[in-house]
Amino acid sequence: MGEHMHDYTVVPRTDEEKAKTLNRLKRIEGQVRGIQKMVEEDRYCVDILVQISAIQSALKNVGYSVTERHMNHCVTDAINKGEGEESIKELMAVLKQFSK
Amino acid sequence: MGEHMHDYTVVPRTDEEKAKTLNRLKRIEGQVRGIQKMVEEDRYCVDILVQISAIQSALKNVGYSVTERHMNHCVTDAINKGEGEESIKELMAVLKQFSK
Amino acid sequence: MGEHMHDYTVVPRTDEEKAKTLNRLKRIEGQVRGIQKMVEEDRYCVDILVQISAIQSALKNVGYSVTERHMNHCVTDAINKGEGEESIKELMAVLKQFSK
Amino acid sequence: MGEHMHDYTVVPRTDEEKAKTLNRLKRIEGQVRGIQKMVEEDRYCVDILVQISAIQSALKNVGYSVTERHMNHCVTDAINKGEGEESIKELMAVLKQFSK
Fold it and tell me: Which PANTHER family has this protein been placed in (chains A, B, C, D) (predicted)?
């Protein structure tokens, strides 16, 4: 589903990097469940919107950290191999979606 | 945690409205878990970013539908009681956060 | 170009409201010209991006103030006439575009 | 005003690149003036919001093209000199502001 075909070697994440990202995603998962409970309990719309904003902000931060890592590893590798332009084009396409 | 103190009566959601919103939130929860799996499996950063964008877009849609319902019920009620201005101020504050 | 057909009476802006909004828009116009100068002078991309962000933020604020005024006047009038739902639907459509 | 101190050499834009960017910025300047006229003429709020959205979208596109150029020149140069990490950090900071 929307997966990219590419030959770039993925630089494996360190265990610490993985743990940090997974923690953030688990917290986001918990926040999404929290909103489900708010809907079930007929909580005030504005309070629900505040929580949705909090999740969006947390997701953006995960996205930024994935993007920064991607530039420091995959894009940097591609540039060193002289294949920077294509890698940058790919990144720009996803950044455009991301900042919508 | 960021909850609003207010006297507005919350118009209870119908069972159908609840079910629809809960379904969307459960799908979003599943998508967040999907990203966790992608991180664990060291999947390509750009593919992860694409999935994060998809969740953001789904969350925004939930936010819009909560906002529209809020305007049709709570804000409309407040306006009918002559207390529209305060209700609109409250909504604007959350919309500013939301569209960040 | 994208203009809406509608029967809503537009509540005229006071001279003060107009002057305030026009001042903000004139400042934004000046900022856009400032960026043109930066491009002509081959200024550093990141400095240009910082200025673009500043304009976006200023434009958003004009948008929020137009939205709040719209809710306090046009939407409130529509609700008082029992035509709220349509007016809210119209506003939601533009908010979705706006927060893209 | 918010200018960065840096040693990166700015790769000069070609005349064609400049002309293209300047054209887009001039069109945006015209759009901003168009909104001023709409405010003066007491035009419908929603029509004004639609025009503001159009400008935001046009500005974003200028921002993306400046960002892509920045990555293809300045960031790529920095990476080739082994100074990529700092350059990427600088870009991330501005992207975070930009997608707010």
Answer: COPPER-SENSING TRANSCRIPTIONAL REPRESSOR RICR, TRANSCRIPTIONAL REPRESSOR FRMR-RELATED
Q: What is the pLDDT of residue D2?
A: 41
CA distance A80 to chain B (A): 18
Identify the burial level of C6 via C-beta atoms within 10 angstroms of its C-beta, where 0-12 means exposed, 13-18 middle and 19 or more buried: middle
Q: Are D37 and C61 in contact (CB under 8 A)?
A: no
pLDDT tens for each residue of C29-72: 999 999 999 999 999 999 999 999 999 999 999 999 999 999 99
B65 against C1, higher pLDDT: B65
- Residues of chain A with pLDDT > 90, as a percent, come to 79
Per-residue three-class SS string for A31-72? HHHHHHHHHHCCCCHHHHHHHHHHHHHHHHHHHHHHHHHHHH
Which token pair is B81? 């009681």
Contacts of C84 (CB under 8 A, 6+ apart): B71, B72, B76, B79, C75, C78
The domain limits of chain C are 15-98
Interchain CB distance below 8 Å, B99 and C96: no
* Contact across the interface for A95 and D71, Cβ inside 8 Å: no
Q: How much is the ipTM here?
A: 0.87
CATH number for the region D16-98 comes to 1.20.58.1000
D30: nearest CA partner in chain C: C29
Q: How many CA atoms lie within 13 A of C65 on its CB side?
A: 14
Give mean pLDDT, residues A39-62. 95
Residue D14: the pLDDT is: 86
Name the residue type at position D15: D
Residue B58 CA to residue B47 CA, distance in Å, equals: 17
Q: Please tell me if residue D88 touches chain A, with a CB cutoff of 8 Å.
A: yes
Which of D38, D40, D49 is the best mutation test for C, with the most CBs of C within 10 A? D49
Taking the C-alpha atoms of residue D4 and residue C50, their distance in angstroms, rounded to an integer, is 10
CB atoms within 10 A of CB B97: 14
Fold of A15-98: Methane Monooxygenase Hydroxylase; Chain G, domain 1 (1.20.58)
**Residue B1 predicted with pLDDT over 50:** no
